[in-house]
Design brief:
Elements lengths: L3 H6 L11 H8 L3 H10 L6 E3 L3 E3 L2 H16 L4 H9 L1
Antiparallel strand pairs: 1-2
């Protein structure tokens, strides 16, 4: 699921159940506003929202974000192309 090239430059994912948007931003190398935008574009990406509409990402969400990041930033996919690639 995750391309090997991503593993070298990104920090390892800690053994936690939930991550805040700031933690995910650091783990995946993208800004928080980009994560919020990707939530709108990729239906597979749906973090748990709790009190005060705060987002809590799980491990599978972090892996999905890393895969999306690899498709968009490293392989040159468009948003639509990445969406089609993930759904297939």
């Amino acid at each position: 699921m995750l391309e090997p090239s991503n593993n070298n430059e990104l920090p390892p994912i800690p053994a936690k159940r939930y991550f805040t948007i700031g933690e995910v931003s650091e783990l995946c190398g993208v800004k928080p506003h980009v994560l919020r935008y990707w939530e709108q574009e990729f239906t597979e990406l749906a973090p748990v929202k709790r009190r005060g509409n705060r987002r809590y990402y799980q491990r599978h969400d972090v892996l999905m974000i890393r895969q999306i990041r690899g498709l968009l930033y490293e392989q040159g996919y468009t948003i639509g192309g990445a969406r089609a690639h993930l759904s297939s």
